[in-house]
Amino acid sequence: MNLVQIYPIVIRWLIISIPFSTVMSAVYNFSGKVVLITGSSAGIGAATAVGFARSGAQVVVTGRNPRRVSAVGKQCSDVSPNGLTALEVTADVSKEVDCKQLIDSTVKAFYRLDVLVNNAGFGLNAGITDSHFGQTLDQMFATNVKSTVVLTQLSADYLIKTKGNIINISSIAANMTVPNLTGYCITKSALDMFTKCMAAELGPKGIRVNAV
Question: Membrane-spanning residues where (predicted)?
């Protein structure tokens, strides 16, 4: 049996034998990095926060519900290989004052920021002929788009210092039509364009900006 035949066997053995968490920790090591995830008290944001914590990052968990924020913060602290305690900040990112408080609290606690994950967002059902369409559009823009713009602006100087990253959580809705979800589709399209603009503007300054 030659090396070409042995190699696939060894790879299969490694995949079966080594725990997935061990592989992840080896490949994605965020020790020493400070990661802020908005909308991280539930769903995708919570899973993202726990994933970063498991990979060694100092995580900042935030959301509007203090009980949920605390629960996810505990999960992050429990899985941290470095014994780190997650910073828990109750905030509504649709409000600029809360966005400022969030960034200020992070920098005050850790003196740096390496990764900003703009995850907070939601969709509301409203057709263009519905009387409440304008109101729902304003609500979604405040959270889905403006919060990302404001937090990017507030964190840019810190991310330039660390040559950090901004990750914006988008949606397939940015590129398709969904009846009665026009407002949501608009906000995600706007988020995608903002991401491209920031990649061009902040890239030369050392910040990588991407949308997922």
Answer: 6-27, 34-53
Q: DSSP of 124-165, one letter per residue?
A: ----TTSTTHHHHHHHHHIIIIIHHHHHHHHHHHHHHHHT-E
Structure tokens at 82: 């470095």
Give the residue numbers annotated as catalytic, written as ranges: 184
Asked if residue 162 is part of any domain, the answer here is: yes
User: Per-residue pLDDT averaged across 202-210, rounded?
Assistant: 98
Residues 6+ apart with CB under 8 A from 55: 24, 25, 28, 29, 30
Assigned domain for 6 exists: no
Predicted local confidence at residue 92, as pLDDT: 98
Helix (H, G, I), strand (E, B) or coil at 169: coil
Structural domain boundaries, residue 198: 34-211
Domain count, the chain: 1
DSSP-derived 3-state class of residue 91: coil
CA-to-CA distance for 46 and 50, rounded, in angstroms? 6
Q: What's the pTM value of the predicted model, to 2 decimals?
A: 0.86
Inside any domain, residue 5? no
**Residue 31 dihedral angles phi and psi, to the nearest 5°:** -60, 135
- What CATH number has the domain bearing residue 142? 3.40.50.720
Pairing of strands 58-63, 34-37: parallel
